[in-house]
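Weekly modeling sync, notes
Attendees: S.R. (lead), two postdocs, one rotation student

Agenda item 3: backlog of single-chain predictions. S.R. asked that every request posted to the team notebook include the full sequence so nobody has to chase files. The rotation student volunteered to paste the first one in as an example of the format we agreed on. Action items at the bottom.

Example entry:
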Amino acid sequence: MKKGNKDLRTGLIALIVVVVLIFIVGIIINRPESIIIQGEADASEIRISGKVPGRIKEFKGEEGSHVLAGDTLVIIDSPELTAKLEQANAAESAASAQDRKANKGARKELILGAFEMYQKAKVGVDISKKSYDRVQHLFDKGVVTAQKRDEAEAQYKAAVATSNAAKSQYDMALNGAEKEDKDAALALVDRAKGAVNEVKSYLKETILTSPISGEITEIYPKRGELVGTGAPIMSIVDLNDIWFTFNVREDLLGQLKMGKTFKVKVPALNNQIVDVKVNYIKALASYATWKATKTTGQFDVKTFEVHARPVAKVADLRPGMTALFEETVK
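Predicted structure, as returned to the notebook:
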């Protein structure tokens, strides 16, 4: 009997141990799993390029230099633009001279000559009128023939026509060019000024300035090299506009919602913990989709790009630094 009781107690203890082990194993199996998700810091970056081709004459900064908005970065040498400006200035001078001529009118000598011809024609009219009047008086008395009277009348009318023509020439010289000619000359001046302003605007593009405050990260050409229109010359990164980027599978998004705040660890900053806030979530293209390999129990999982900005400015944080955070998967 004693031996039987001892075997019973031993069996009961073994059963209890098995049940406890099964319970512990169940807890371990069902415990949520933690996954470390890795991302990196990104920042706004712009490329500096020019509108005009030319050779790099001078750099006003070097890689790693800090620049302020408006600082001069690059000077480009473009002799062709300088030559075009000289041509445009010459064209403007010629157009201005033409405009002055149109508005000034005829030369004084021409005006005086036209006036003298007009006065001469008026004298001719007076003489022809007196002759015609005398002949008409004699014709009325029957002294001269009708032919003589007609000849005197024709000479008088011709003198009047000559006087009118001389008066028109004098008025034309006095008034100068017609309104249409003045308008055309003024249009030429405006066109020439526009060409000068266009060349000057391109010349401004030979001196490139920084549109933002930041740090020069890379300079592409060397001093003296030829650069084309729109060719990138240098890159500037804005260290005040920095964020973290994570590529997260949709089944791991968990609590990563818009406006959600969470903590990340930055190994490069002595594992500093940084509070960040989600401000951007977007599904990536199909190439980033995890494809299911089984027909049952699995489904295709998309990858989302998540941006999270630091809640407060982080000293010494730079683009490319790794960021880690832990996500729990049930």
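Discussion: group reviewed the output briefly. The helical segments are 2-30, 79-104, 108-141, 146-175, 179-204.
Action items: rotation student to repeat for the remaining queue; S.R. to check formatting next week.
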